[in-house]
Inverse folding.
């Protein structure tokens, strides 16, 4: 990590003596100032709430200094404050469980916007029942956001979050309670959303449930996707030092070790996706959304989905799939295994979205089904021959 | 009847007793009539946003902005108006937390636009700053903008108004560029820094709204859209008013614009003067506490606005009938 310029540190110190502490983790003055404001608000509020406190004035400042010192050692702000907003929800964060990211929030909200807004009982608008599976649920943020977005549209909603980390499952349950208590989720969420501990590599990864008949309509997952190499080179230091490695890097498969040779460097984070696709098939998912590390991994996952004859269409989403800036390429696509795949939004390649015919009907939104079937010889990039 | 010589004296005295009351009634009637003639402002029924921006005067202006912010907040509270801070940029240095660089508050109660519209303009402060050693009075200013507010719920409940390209409230999403301030790089699981700032640029007008108040990108985006919509609607309205006003200037009527000094708060004399209605109250503290004195000023401004609106209407009417001739 490059050293901070002395002039920057001086400038920061002249503004506020705590800013240089924050700069060590934030790197730029703007973010450091924002963090200082959030820490300050938190310190003032926490001190006011604390009944054991008589010298309020002195203590909120010492609390603030303590938080800034922790931050200067690289501890993420979300662990220090104990939470991260996600959509309109407030997600509790604890060491040992991955902090929800804005990109995850963005793609999760985007898939919700794909689902029909009004869902009565009428034939035309489809069933008023929806089952959503969130694998590798972590804090439970995706599962809970799903409930927030869909509870007004579906009379019957079943959401299940699974994680192999016991602490994650406990935290996800606390998050459900916390958001219901805060009035951010309706009471019924307590019945509609469940979190269980489970390993997606085990044979019965998804527990059989009588009410869903083992079937789930939508499968969403933000699995560990970082390769061991990228973990050491690409992740932020604070991520490496403070967030659980198991949430970021998938296990290396014994059968694959060595066999991949030099390709391991890039594709070492891919191992979970074939497994997720297999589970999708087993539970009869009509739509899947997987978060990925970058465009290359997105294209590899599209390739995997292509080999699996289950899927009738697929799209790649960038970080902000709903943003379509004018002037930017109007329609973007990539070619994977001779098939054109539409790319949505702005930012890094971030997610792969695939659907079956049934899924497409459920979504009831114009998805370019045909694109997926255009053989390469018809693709505009090669048509000149 | 009173002046008629043939009138019975008793009747005359009775009638003259009634006269003051009748005159008062007549005045009230005519005021009401005038009021009912004045077209209702198209944004009158809406909630509003108040934007405070310190102008000339450095720290003093920034401090005064925070005084004004507090004044409006207390006012809202005592009038049962729901109000909430949308964004507030304070000075970053220690001990300067009450120096505001820009603040936007949202007043959610319907009709707030009409209630606050007279507050728009430049508010001037005259006082001796704490740092001033020679005891000199400084003059600084804060400009207050009053914008029509369309909270998301309103937008969702009135899709027609918001989707009609001819409406003041319409913003074509295609015209808006969104920039996410998420640091460049790998993003996703690789990064845990909070980069939640959002910048919207309305390309046709070059209007830029940046929002970094919240740790939630989602909430920053929502607020940024709200402010953008409000600024564009106000600008469109002002452009039309400007056009009308330009025609009236030929007819000799002056108008106050957003750059005009509307009110002075003088600390030494404990006085507040509104330069439009020409009201002066020697109750500075009560005004700043959002008390009855502020109400009194706002009411006098309301009457002044109404008289201006009426004047404008008469001129428009005259111009129209001249054109007919
Ligand atoms: C990148 S985190 C995602 C957490 C959360 N969904 C989010 O978006 O913030 C991946 C999660 O997968 C869990 N996980 C890793 N391996 C797993 C496995 N084999 N079975 C189930 N969960 C696993 C980790 O414990 C971690 O909570």
């Amino acid at each position: 990590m490059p050293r901070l310029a002395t002039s920057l540190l001086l400038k920061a110190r002249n503004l506020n003596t705590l800013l240089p502490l924050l700069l060590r983790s934030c790197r730029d003055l703007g973010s450091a100032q924002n963090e200082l404001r959030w820490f300050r608000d938190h310190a003032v509020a926490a001190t006011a709430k604390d009944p054991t406190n008589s010298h309020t004035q002195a203590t909120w400042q010492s609390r603030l200094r303590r938080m800034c010192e922790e931050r200067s050692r690289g501890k993420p702000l979300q662990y220090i404050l104990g939470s991260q907003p996600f959509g309109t929800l407030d997600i509790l964060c604890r060491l040992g469980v991955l902090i929800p990211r804005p990109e995850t929030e963005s793609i999760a909200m985007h898939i919700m916007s794909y689902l029909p807004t009004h869902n009565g009982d009428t034939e035309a608008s489809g069933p008023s029942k929806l089952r959503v599976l969130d694998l590798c649920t972590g804090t439970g943020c995706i599962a809970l956001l799903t409930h927030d977005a869909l509870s007004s549209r579906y009379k019957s909603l079943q959401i299940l979050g699974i994680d192999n980390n016991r602490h994650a499952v406990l935290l996800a349950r606390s998050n459900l309670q916390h958001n219901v208590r805060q009035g951010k989720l309706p009471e019924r969420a307590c019945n509609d959303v469940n979190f269980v501990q489970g390993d997606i590599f085990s044979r019965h990864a998804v527990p059989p449930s009588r009410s869903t008949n083992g079937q789930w309509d939508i499968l969403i997952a933000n699995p560990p996707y970082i390769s061991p190499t990228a973990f050491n080179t690409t992740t932020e230091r604070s991520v490496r030092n403070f967030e659980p490695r198991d949430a970021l890097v998938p296990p290396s498969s014994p059968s694959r070790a060595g066999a991949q040779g030099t390709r391991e460097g890039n594709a070492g984070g891919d191992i979970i996706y074939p497994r997720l696709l297999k589970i999708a098939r087993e539970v009869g998912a009509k739509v899947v959304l997987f978060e990925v590390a970058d465009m290359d991994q997105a294209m590899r996952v599209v390739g995997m989905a292509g080999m699996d004859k289950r899927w009738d269409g697929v799209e790649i989403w960038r970080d902000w799939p709903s943003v379509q800036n004018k002037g930017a390429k109007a329609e973007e696509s990539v070619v994977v295994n001779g098939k054109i795949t539409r790319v949505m939004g702005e930012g890094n390649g971030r997610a792969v979205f695939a659907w079956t015919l049934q899924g497409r009907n459920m979504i009831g939104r114009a998805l370019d089904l045909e694109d997926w079937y255009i053989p390469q010889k018809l693709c505009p990039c090669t048509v000149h021959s | 009847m009173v002046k008629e010589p043939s009138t019975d004296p008793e009747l005359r005295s009775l009638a003259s007793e009634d006269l003051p009351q009748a005159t008062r009634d007549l005045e009230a009637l005519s005021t009401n009539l005038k009021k009912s003639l004045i077209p209702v402002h198209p944004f009158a029924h809406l909630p509003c946003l108040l934007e405070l921006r310190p102008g000339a005067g450095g720290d003093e202006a920034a401090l005064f902005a925070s005084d004004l912010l507090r004044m409006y907040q207390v006012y809202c509270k005592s009038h049962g108006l729901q109000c909430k801070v949308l964004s507030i940029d304070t000075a970053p240095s220690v001990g300067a937390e009450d120096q505001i660089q820009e603040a936007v508050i949202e007043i959610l109660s319907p009709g707030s636009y009409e209630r606050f519209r007279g507050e728009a303009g430049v508010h001037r402060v005259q006082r001796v700053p704490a740092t001033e050693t020679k005891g000199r009075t400084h003059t600084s200013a804060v400009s207050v903008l009053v914008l029509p507010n369309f909270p998301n719920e309103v937008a969702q409940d009135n899709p027609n108004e918001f989707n009609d390209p001819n409406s003041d409230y319409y913003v074509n999403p295609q015209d808006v560029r969104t920039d996410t301030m998420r640091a460049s790089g790998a993003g996703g699981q690789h990064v845990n820094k909070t980069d939640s700032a959002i910048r919207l640029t309305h390309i046709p007008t070059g209007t830029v709204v940046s929002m970094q108040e919240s740790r939630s990108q989602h909430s920053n985006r929502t607020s940024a859209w709200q402010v953008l919509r409000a600024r564009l609607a106000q600008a469109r309205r002002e452009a039309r008013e400007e056009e009308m006003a330009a025609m009236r200037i030929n007819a000799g009527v002056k108008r106050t614009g957003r750059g005009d000094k509307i009110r002075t708060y003088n600390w030494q004399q404990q006085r507040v003067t509104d330069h439009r209605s020409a009201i002066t109250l020697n109750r500075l503290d009560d005004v700043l506490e959002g008390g009855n004195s502020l109400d009194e000023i706002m009411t006098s401004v309301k009457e002044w606005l109404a008289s201006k609106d009426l004047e404008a209407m008469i001129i428009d009417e005259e111009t129209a009938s001249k054109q007919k001739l």
Notes: The mean pLDDT of chain B is 86. Chain B touches chain A at residues 90, 92-94, 97, 174-175, 177-178, 180, 182, 186-197, 203, 212, 214-219 (CB under 8 Å).
